C-alpha cells in the first residue's frame, strides 16, 4: 500500500528527479558493466585486458598508527600491499607476509589514505613571459613540476578542472604507466563557459582561443557538443562555468551524465540555482548563493568544493577580487568562512581543493594544510577534516569504491607521516613515504626514481 502511494505521488509530480530527491547519477551506466571485466581506474571505467596490475611483490608498512579514513579511531596495525592493492591490515604483532616482502618500519608514524586535491589547473603557469606561458611545452613542464609538489606533499590524486590542450590527459597516462612520478590525474579537459563568462573576462577572443583552456559555447546544442568534445578527448569529469542559461546548463549536465561523467560548476548567485536545478554534482568555490540554494544542494546531494585558500591568498596579496564580471559580488575572507559554516550546517557534503594558480603550488603543503584548517575553523574536527580530504574527495571524484580509505581491496594510495596529523594538522608537512598505485614514489619526503630497467633484450647482430 505504502509503495503504491509513493509511486502514484512520483507519477503525479512527473518524475522522481523533478521532486529533487533522486537525480540521474553519472555511474548509472555501470549497471551494464560485467563485474568480471577489468576496467581502468577512473570514472570512465574503460574495459582493459585482464592481467596483473601494479609492481610485482609485496610491500609491508609495519607497525604504524592507522588512520583509515572511514571514521574509525586511529589504531595500531600493519598494512600489507600486494601489487597495486591493499591486501590486508594486520594487528600490530602479526608477521604473516611473504618472506621476500619489502618491509618498511613505520612504528610511531601515521599511515593514512593519500590526500586528494579536487581543484587544480596543471597546465596553468607561474609568472613568465606570455608567449612561453601559452606554449604546450612550457605548460607541460610547469605541470610536471606541479606533480612533484603534489606527490611530495602526500597528495596522490588531483582533479584537473581545466587545462590547455591534451596536457592533463598525457600526464595522466604517463603517471598511470609509472613513467613519471606524480599523483593520479583526473582531468576535465577544457572549461566550458558562455561568451564573456568566467575564463574569458578581459581577454580578447583570439587570446582565449590561443590559450586553449576555455571552450566558449552558445546555445544548448553547442553546450552538449562542447561536453562531447571533452569526452572524446578523454575527460573524467566535466567543468562548466557561468554564465549560461538554464537550458544550456541543463543540456550540458544531461549530456555529461549520459556519457557517465560527473559535472562540477564554477558559478555564483542565481547561476548556482540553475546548476543545482539542472542536477550538477559539485559546486566550486565559496561564492555567494542563497540559503534556499544551499538547502537544495543538501537535499539533492550536490557537493561543494569550497576552495577557501586561493581567496585567502588573493585577499592577502591584492586586497580583494577586482576587474571581474563573474566575481563582482561582495565577499571577503570572513564571508567565505561563513559560507563554509552555512554549507556544513545545512549538511552539504564538502570536499577539499586548493585551486593553486600562478606559482602558489610552490607553497605546498602549507596551502593544503591551510585549507584543512579552514574546515576546522568552520566546525569540522581534525579527523573529520582529514576524512574530507580523503574519503569525501574520493566520493566527489566518483572513485570511492577504489580510493579514499585504507581497506583491503582498495588501490594502494598511501601516505606515511612522521607525526600525528589526526591530532595536529601541521604534522602533514612531515611527509615520509608516499605510495601511489602500489609504487613507492616518495621516501624520506623526496621523490625516488629507481634506475631504469631495460624492457627487452637486444643484442647487436653479428657484423
Ligand atoms: Zn579553478
Report the end-to-end length measured between terminal Cα atoms. Answer: 88 Å
| Named CATH topology of the largest domain | TIM Barrel
Q: Structural class, from helix and strand content? A: alpha/beta
- Can you tell me the CATH superfamily of the largest domain? Metal-dependent hydrolases
Percent range of helical residues: 25-40%
Biggest beta-sheet profile: 9 strands, mixed
User: Number of helix segments?
Assistant: 13
Describe it for me?
The protein has 463 residues and is α/β, with parallel strands linked by helices. The chain has three domains: 31 residues, no CATH class; 94 residues, Urease, subunit C, domain 1 (Roll), CATH 2.30.40; 283 residues, Metal-dependent hydrolases (TIM Barrel, Alpha-Beta Barrel). Helices cover 32% and strands 19% of the residues. The chain is built from 13 helices and 18 strands. Strands 1, 2, 3, 4, 5, 15, 16, 17 and 18 form a nine-stranded mixed sheet that branches. Strands 10-9-11-12-13-14 form a six-stranded parallel sheet. Helix 8 links the parallel strand 12 and strand 13. The N and C termini lie far apart (88 Å).
Could you give a short description of this structure?
The chain is an alpha/beta fold and 463 residues long. The chain has 13 helices and 18 strands.
